[in-house]
Write a structure and sequence with these properties.
The strands form 3 sheets. A 5-stranded mixed β-sheet has the order 7-6-10-8-9, covered by helices on one side. It has a 3-stranded antiparallel β-sheet with strand order 2-1-5, with helices on one face. A two-stranded antiparallel sheet has the order 3-4. Helix content is 29%, strand content 26%. It has 5 helices and 10 strands; from the N terminus they run ααββββαβββαββαβ. It is elongated. It has 230 residues and is α+β, with helices and mostly antiparallel strands. Among the domains are: 65 residues, wza like domain (wza like fold, 2-Layer Sandwich); 83 residues, Outer membrane lipoprotein wza fold like (Roll).
Length: 230
């Protein structure tokens, strides 16, 4: 306060001409507006820094080479049901959207969500009263992997892949990251052991030519491409 009074006193006693009152008010208003702009920019930067600090907890999925789980059938899969004792009944079936197949003598049977071994045992039990030789062999002819891709991609939606597909390949099928997206923050949500888990991936090293172990999509995966902080 003492310094301010001294500065005013020195200004008053100086020989410098004092600006007209309207001009002084204009300068004061511009100064306030400039200060408000600086404050707004600072607040925006602080908010962006806090937003960029939000992180998703990442859990590594089990090593796919060590966790070979039995194949679970899904709608869209094509299976062949063979009857060694009654070959004329053998046929290929596409699992319908409701997860069922339709077979002679037994009608509709739920196949989606079951393993091949489980379905095979169920069919043998159903055909035992119908056939003298109720041996049934179920084989998978073509598999479809449904995946949901969302977030900052150009074409979000549900995709179905009929061959082994990596996470990066799946994102490219969705048009790649949009102008706000970054491949440095890709979240893959997967059901493991009855629980949903999320693994966060940085796919940028792949595009830079660095050797990287691929992560393949599984049926039911949800892939979310995050947005860049700036």
């Amino acid at each position: 306060m003492i310094l301010l009074a001294s500065a005013v006193r020195n200004f008053v006693h100086s020989n410098l001409p004092l600006a007209p009152l309207p001009t002084r008010w204009k300068c004061l208003a511009q100064g306030r507006q400039y200060g408000f702009t600086l404050s707004s920019c600072f607040l925006l930067l602080v908010l962006l820094s806090f937003a960029s600090c939000e992180t998703t907890v990442s859990t590594n999925f089990p090593d796919e080479s060590l966790a070979r789980m039995p194949v679970t059938l899904s709608p869209g899969d094509v299976i062949k049901v063979s009857f060694p004792g009654t070959t004329e009944l053998s046929e290929s079936q596409t699992i319908q959207a409701d997860g069922k197949i339709n077979l002679p003598f037994v009608g509709e049977v739920a196949a989606g969500g079951r393993t091949i071994g489980d379905l095979q045992s169920t069919l043998e039990a159903l055909y035992k009263p119908q056939l003298q030789n109720a041996t049934v062999v179920v084989t998978l002819e073509r598999s479809v992997t449904p995946v949901v891709i969302g977030g900052a991609v150009k074409k979000p939606g549900k995709y179905a892949f009929d061959r082994p597909t990596t996470v990066l390949q799946a994102i490219m099928e969705a048009g790649g990251a949009d102008q706000f997206g970054t491949l440095g923050k890709v979240s893959v949500v997967r059901v493991v052991g009855g629980q949903q888990r999320t693994q966060v991936l940085d796919l940028r090293p792949i595009l830079q030519g660095k050797p990287t172990k691929p992560l393949y999509v599984h049926a039911g995966d949800i892939i979310m491409v995050g947005e860049s902080a700036f």
